[in-house]
Amino acid sequence: MMAVQDYVFAPHVDTLSYGEFKTLVEKAKIGQVAIGPKFITGQLKRDGLEGLLPPARVEALRKAGPGDHPFMTVKVDDPSLVRDLQQAGVDFRGEVTSTWLPTLLGWLLPMGLFFLIWRFAMKKMGGGGLGGLMSIGKSKAKVYVQKDTGITFGDVAGIDEAKAELVEVVEFLKTPERFQRLGGKIPKGVLLVGVPGTGKTLLAKAVAGEAKVPFFSLSGSDFVEMFVGVGAARVRDLFAQAVQHAPSIIFIDELDALGKARGMNPLGGHDEREQTLNQLLVEMDGFDSNNGVIIMAATNRPEILDPALLRPGRFDRQVLVDRPDLKGREAILQVHAKGVTLGPEVDLGQLAAKTFGFVGADLANIVNEAALLAARQGKAAVGMADFEEAIDRVVAGLKKTRVMRPREREMVATHEAGHAVAAAFLPGADPVLKV
After folding, report:
1. Closest by alpha carbon to 313, among 187, 199, 407?
2. Number of alpha helices (DSSP H) and beta strands (DSSP E) in the chain
3. Which of 89, 97, 216, 255 minimizes the number of CB atoms within 10 Å of its CB?
4. Would the pLDDT of 61 be above 80?
């Protein structure tokens, strides 16, 4: 900071060494002098400086014009200075300079620079300066309304049992007085359980779309941060926002990231995740289900969830979203094939029979892969051969070019033939469509 002051506020005058200054005083080339706390300033006579200063400086002073020229030199602890000035007849005086402004700016400039660097770093981390620091405990939930999601139960197919269960949740949100008039209480939470890709998130969005209420969507991992207490603060903020926008739906995807059973930490103690889970349990107990807020969550690992989450009064209902059956797969294919130009020979029922065990995400991927294959070959429509190749790509991956030895080919052929023969002779088994 002192270097900043010296550089910015130093006078722009000719600078002399203290030795040169004493010589000029002795030769009567100094007009008048002001002695300050750090520097000595005054007027330098221009005439007769040859031999006292370097020739280049003498020439520069001569070109500067007639009259005396201001100079500056550093103040040295010299007891003989006053005596020498008196003997030379130099008019001198003491001077106390005001230093509050340079000192103030010398502090403010570095502080302003540090603040700009800190704010730039916060923006790089996504904090947004002071606003980001103060909003670290705010919920990260994305809020959708019906016009944003555009999803209704018409977009959900193949999981009719789960859909029928959630139709009643829509009725809870639309006409809660119908269920409350006899003293009943609206369920607080609905837990969707199923393997990945079965449409749990799609179902939750369809409930919000049908009920036309705000939909707060976030993942279980969004609550947990490196800072202690942030997750619990975000839970409180999320429930406060949902109550303000009631009736509304809170949807927590991948609940197992947040709701894992407590006491499973191998290091012991209460980590940030457990504190966040405790706050979630408190909030689910603390709000009234009749205020129009329903909590929905999805998980594919219900066995690791904390038992306190699953008890009645929190997640009152658990809805199994299972893999679709033959009719369900055909209905899902019909939904995803709506925007695809299909050839006349395409039989979605036959495709559904070939995709045993596939979930909705797999079937959507097959339709998309078939459309890409047909477009890559320049076809006018997606044919049955494109769907069959897409199924092979999804099931077995890309086509292998590795050459197999005859003995290895024989073993693989025998193994696959055994599958086909066993399926052909077992009663009730799916028909063998391809070996």
Report:
1. 187
2. 18, 11
3. 89
4. no
Mean pLDDT of the chain: 78
CA distance 33 to 24: 12
Per-residue confidence band for 149, with pLDDT thresholds at 50, 70 and 90: low
Query: What is the secondary structure of 362-418 as a DSSP string?
Result: HHHHHHHHHHHHHHHTT-SSB-HHHHHHHHHHHHH-SPP-PPPPHHHHHHHHHHHHH
Identify which has the larger pLDDT, 226 or 317.
317
Q: pTM of the full predicted structure?
A: 0.61
- Which CATH number is associated with domain 326-401? 1.10.8.60
Rounded to an integer, what distance in angstroms lies between the CA atom of residue 223 and that of residue 333? 36
Query: What is the fold of 14-99?
Result: 3.30.720
Q: Identify the architecture of domain 144-263+270-320 in CATH.
A: 3-Layer(aba) Sandwich (3.40)
Instruction: Please give the share of the chain, as a percent, with pLDDT higher than 90.
Output: 1
Lowest mean pLDDT among 96-100, 195-199, 384-388: 96-100
* Active site (annotated) includes residue 416: yes
Q: H or E element: which one contains 96?
A: none
Angle between helices 360-376 and 326-336 (to 10 degrees): 50
Closest CA to 292 of 246, 250, 252: 246
Q: How confident is the model at residue 183 (pLDDT cuts 50, 70, 90)?
A: confident
Span 145-155, average pLDDT:
67
Strand pairing report for 189-193 and 142-144: unpaired
Domain ranges in the chain are 14-99, 144-263+270-320, 326-401
Residues 6+ away with beta carbon under 8 Å from 136: 127, 225, 227, 230, 233
- Which residue in the block uniquely carries the two structure tokens 């900043």? 4
